[in-house]
Amino acid sequence: MRLTDHERAMLDGGHGEAAARAMDLLVRYGEALGAERLVETRNVAGAFNASTPSVREIAEDSLDRVFSELNLDSDDVIEIPHVAVPTCQLITGIDNDNFATQGVDPELADLQLRSEQYLGKRGINLMCTCTPYQVGNVPVMGEHCAWMESSAVIYANSVLGARTNVEGKESTGAAALTGRIPYWGLHCPENRFAQHLIRVETEVGDMAEWGVLGYFTGFAVEEEIPAFEGLTDQPSLVKLKHFGAAAASSGGVELYHMPGITPEAASLDAAFGPNARPEPAVYGAAERRRTWERLQNASDRKLDFVMLGCPHNSIEQMALIAELLDGKRIHSDTELWVHTPSAIRQVADRSGYTAIIEAAGGVVMSDTCPSISRKVPAGTRVIATDSAKQAHYLPAIAKVQGWFGSVEQCVNSAIAGEWLGVVQ
Amino acid sequence: MSEAQAKPRVITLKGRKVVGGKATAEALVSTQTISGWGGINEREGSVIELHHQLNGVSFAGKVLVFPGAKGSSGWSAYWHMCRLNGTAPAAMIFTRMTTKIALGAVVSRVPTVTDLDGDVFELIETGDLVEVDADAGVVTITKR
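Structure tokens for the assembled complex are given below, as produced in the milestone run.
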């Protein structure tokens, strides 16, 4: 791989031991990919927090050892300096305020707090959400990023026109200390053209419908790049957030183009560039119904747990849930957890939404979600969620039955204590 | 092995090094991609994804032959933990390059090759003895 003088100096130890280890990993990783060079990045989103049981043993030694081993792939314990470029922490396993409700060991919650102090001191911004783009990390068109979290990567690439591959714990650790990442894959403009065409021939309107279209898309294109025609709704951030999270769950979609909606391709011609335009895959009423049914992994209607906020809720979604719950009471046999970034929770608190949700018997959580934490209320057998992504992962992870439906269906079912949703 | 069978047939393939090193072990072949987070048990080095063709099978110490990675960006972290737990494969041969598999192979630190000049899913069966000389980019298969 070709390195610049500065990169060579970092590799040779001229900028400290941590930068040298980070460059060593980036060179090994870049050569594994077949990348010819690195690219500068000033926007890193990774997973640095020590909050899982398997990390506890390493953390008993030192938090420098956690970072050295798990974020730099270094056998030696390196003293970790301040990060070189803006870096944020993504979602974690523990809600610092609600860990008891989650059923988390208090010692692990304490380890997470110590880990946060360690990371904050080194300049890692503790956003603690799968949606950094909702709380101030909004890359601009063309910006090279090094992000983990499949739902955030697809949002950054497609909706914002930023450029990032799906990175991992070690590559984001190395990027944070060097401001470099391999120039490969979606960093290169020639790899960003569409390969599939999806023709939408049915209404895609509310958030649930956008999630179902995303779930269909992942199955249709797997890891490749689709472009769309026939969309009639102007989607919001919330709808595209759900669409992308679903497409990245059923497939491995990291980039899509919707001419007139996403910024990189104003027309189908621009979306496909030099690629031949293939025969379209049609998404009609029958496909919508079949995909919606595919998201139902339950038969019992008695509902134990309703999970909202995957990816983490926007303030608009928090307001809607409060409106649906205002003056109501969640069934005594059913739990409702609503997930939102802590920065948005603060606005929800001030706006009175948290109080309404709590008065109805719900819990507002931040920092985590049940799939990441692997925690659901004790005794849960049947869950419901408004997220296609969570409906895809949680039944397998928590070994529960799972229903999928709109936010209105989920909230009304939580009040009734039984699943009232219907396939649309 | 019956008398009628010829002596082991040896096949040599040439490809590209992903991670250097050399290892010989029994092959474990999956024609399906494998997940990290949510797809493997890092303590046992086994596939746990429901409906997966290797569900319940351990890849620890094997030459894992598979298309590559799928799923969460936690892929490398889980294969990294396999190395720390001593449950990583002995070597890896894969066909579809992604950032997940590249980083995962690097932090697993096992000899890994890709871009081989033959169809590995045709030529390699579970149980074959496979030598991966990643530095030379050479895979030698001795049929069982």
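Chain A has 18 helices and 14 strands. The first strand of chain A starts at residue 38 and ends at 40. Further analysis is deferred to the final report.
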